[in-house]
Amino acid sequence: MKIILLGAPGAGKGTQAKIISEKLEIPHISTGDIFRANIKGNTPLGMKVKEYLDNGELVPDELTVEIVKDRLGNDDCAKGYILDGFPRTIPQAEYLDKVLSEMNTSIDLALLIDVKDEDIITRMSGRRVCTNCGATYNIVFNPTKVEGICDSCNSEVIQRADDSAETVLNRLETYHKQTQPLIDYYKKTNKLVVAEGAEEVKDTTERVLKALGI
Ligand code: AMP
Fold first, then answer.
1. pLDDT digit string, tens, across residues 11-41
2. How much distance in Å is there from the Cα of 177 to the middle of ligand 1?
3. Which domains does the chain have, with CATH numbers?
4. Which of the four pLDDT bands, split at 50, 70 and 90, describes residue 161?
5. Does the annotation flag 87 for ligand binding?
6. N-term to C-term CA, the chain
């Protein structure tokens, strides 16, 4: 199954993507994770994209689409995948359609995790991420068992730099301007399914699995 995850930053895409990826045994591909790993490793790509991430702006399409194209060509993508954070603009969606049609395939579903702006702001300020394995938590809705320590790998859990209050507002604005039009894009081709985000991760998961019919 080939799934796209749509939703505002902080809607819970990453958390749900991990769950779906384990359940369906398909890779979870997050362009945000790929960029962050490159920034951490000081690669040429990392140096090019750092400023965009720091400011809560989108990385230019031409840099982003190449990464995704490479990744989708890997053997582990044969059975399907879940794309988290890509596409984020109409040109990216058109590019993805083109690349997939060249591979004689297409997306099965675009799942929107729908969360109101005011809830997004509360969630993002509480979001924490593991510095080692990337597991995400929320100090209010989904806390670690021991404060500041990852449940899975015992490493330090921190707030992402781009989850700071000012950047969150920028990212939300970017989402409304550039990414929200994708909802109509996938509605037009009958690929869109919607799950309303709930406070508790497990409740959102229940809605997500139902929306995907799995
Ligand atoms: P995320 O982890 O998905 O919230 O992404 C973090 C940041 O990475 C975004 O705020 C953008 O700066 C960048 N990014 C991730 N995916 C994309 C994309 N598809 N297009 C452009 N920029 C992206």
1. 999 999 999 999 999 999 999 999 999 999 9
2. 14
3. 2-117+172-212 (3.40.50.300)
4. confident
5. yes
6. 10
